[in-house]
Amino acid sequence: MKIGVIHESNLPTPSSRLLIEAVRKLGHESYYMPFSYISVRIDKKGLILKIGSKPLDINAGLLRSIGFAPSFEQFMGRLALFMGIEEEGIYLMNPIQGLLNARNKFITLLRLHRAGIPVPRSLLTENLAEAYRLTAQWSKVVVKPLVGSRGYGQVLVDNADLGYRIFRTCLQFKQFIFLEEYMNKPSRDIRLFVIGERVVAAMYRYSPPDSWKTNIAQGGRAEPMKPPPELEELAVKTTEVLGLDYAGVDVLESNEGYYVLEANGSPGFEGLMKVTGINIPLEIVSYLVEKVKR
Question: How many C-beta atoms lie closer than 10 Å to residue 231's C-beta?
């Protein structure tokens, strides 16, 4: 089978290299495909896909990213590009619609909430007064970028007037105000890596001293864990609802039970591999091959 690893970067990232190695280890052909080399052409004979000047000849693609902070024009162009690839019958993992659901953090919460999955109370608005009112009402909120990862740009606010200044700044830079009610947790959360209908690896992530963030990129400490059946079921359902084949699902433990904080459709896995010893890229590629053969 010919499998392409598709990413924004012109050179393979560490996670892309691990996926390429996994493809080869399983006896398949691997190709690295930066966005900027791919083209889709509508012709009289149908769609023509190319990588550089050569035909884009793959059976499936591992789409690792839509890209970091593209312009709206770039984003729409890439969306059309990937849809064109899918239209031609090439299976992308994750599918572009699933990546879109997971890319926008509020859409993620909206989809999960409608499916009956517990998520934090959240607000998306350009209304400064409403953001101020809810910050005062909820006492503590987390202000988040609508699109982001690794905890970057997230701010814990426990003062409505301080929040007011942050919200005004967001609006001045033409950013939506997106905030969640802060939920107390035991200085940790849980990352579960779902592939298909099972959790292949999981870990606790502990926040460093004097910090509320548990992200490994923010100095968090990790240790492996074996999730109970109800937590596995929650993570698998989350992945299914969002239309993803694999995902990193972040879950918070509260007195009321588990809450899903977010799901990453382009999750990193190097840290989780070190903690658990599980070859996650091999699991991803194996599932992709199985899915394409069906």
Answer: 20
